[in-house]
Design brief:
Blueprint: E1 4-8, E2 14-15, E3 18-19, H1 23-32, E4 37-41, H2 48-58, E5 67-69, H3 70-81, E6 86-90, H4 93-101, E7 105-106, E8 113-116, H5 124-135, E9 139-142, E10 148-151, E11 154-157, H6 159-170, E12 175-176, H7 182-192, E13 199-203, H8 206-216, E14 219-223, E15 242-244, H9 252-259, H10 266-271
Parallel strand pairs: 1-4, 1-13, 4-5, 6-7, 6-8, 8-9, 9-12, 13-14, 14-15
Antiparallel strand pairs: 2-3, 10-11
Helix pairs in contact: 3-4, 3-7, 5-6
The structure holds magnesium ion (MG).
């Protein structure tokens, strides 16, 4: 069985609209060797097509089939939980498109779910509506719980910060689908047809990319080109399988050489 990759984008492939050096070379290496890979993002704002165009303009020639967003994971999850349901949505195009594609109607009254994603058009009235719908019995679902996101100007509040307002006001905890949730991590692996042992998660954030990968039993590679610095690593009870400065330091052949090394299982250790 071949290895394949789930690759976070922000802080791994690009920072805002700047390509991170080495990213295009690494992706070309995967494409030349026909290694399966999927870009994984906790940003629900854009569709997979929007994101593929962004990547193409940065010099990474991939189609929409190489992108998997938390909006897609959320819509698939809801469609399985309750087919042809209804949702009140705080979010933008990527989330609305995914929900519509999966048979959901977006409504302002009596929804099955209140779904929260990223957006830049948030108002107090939207929070108030969401709160009252949750208090009225709608189930609260978050596309992700990222507290904030780095930008070139500093930091912007993430989806998790908006969800926290509704959680605090309602006393109801949201169910979150995006990384590190196994719902999204497993769906992405299945999309590539990989098994657990041959799935490699590359990311820059310990709380989402690396935690999600570790919980699923995937191999994990932390890149230091984004939010995590080496001195932060001692704060976590879990460690990535590998830490590199950036994708520029990574070679597929060298990596699978490391990950293919057989680790004795508990039975073998006991016999020895
Ligand atoms: Mg990232």
């Amino acid at each position: 069985m071949n290895f394949g990759y789930l690759i976070d984008m922000d802080g791994v492939v690009y920072r805002d609209s700047q390509l991170i050096p080495g990213a295009a070379r690494f992706i070309s290496e995967l494409q030349d060797a026909k290694i399966p890979f999927l870009f994984l993002t906790n940003n629900s704002q854009r569709t997979r097509r929007d994101i593929a165009i962004k990547l193409q303009r940065l010099g990474i020639d991939v189609g929409p089939e190489h992108v998997f967003t938390c909006a897609m994971a959320t819509a698939r999850f809801l469609a399985r939980q309750k087919p042809n349901g209804t949702a009140y949505v705080i979010g933008e195009g990527g989330l609305l498109h995914a929900l519509h594609t999966h048979g959901y109607a977006v409504v302002d009254k009596d929804p099955d779910f209140v779904v929260i994603g990223e957006g830049r058009t948030l108002s107090y009235e939207m929070i108030e509506t969401a709160l009252n719908l949750v208090l009225g019995g709608a189930k609260l679902v978050a596309t992700n719980m990222d507290p904030n996101c780095p930008t070139t100007k500093g930091t912007r509040p993430g989806c998790g910060a908006v969800v926290a307002m509704i959680e605090e006001a309602s006393g109801v905890k949201a169910f979150s689908v995006g990384k590190p949730s196994p719902v999204m991590m497993r769906a992405a692996r299945k999309e590539l047809g990989l098994d657990t042992e041959h799935t490699i998660m590359i990311g820059d954030t310990m709380e989402t990319d690396i935690l999600g990968g570790v919980q699923m039993g995937y191999q994990t590679v932390l890149v230091l080109s984004g939010s995590t610095k080496t001195e932060h690593l001692c704060n976590y009870a879990y460690t990535p399988s590998r830490v590199v400065d950036s994708l520029a330091m990574l070679s597929h052949n060298e990596l699978i050489g490391q990950f293919s090394t057989v680790v004795p299982n508990e039975m073998e250790l006991a016999v020895a």
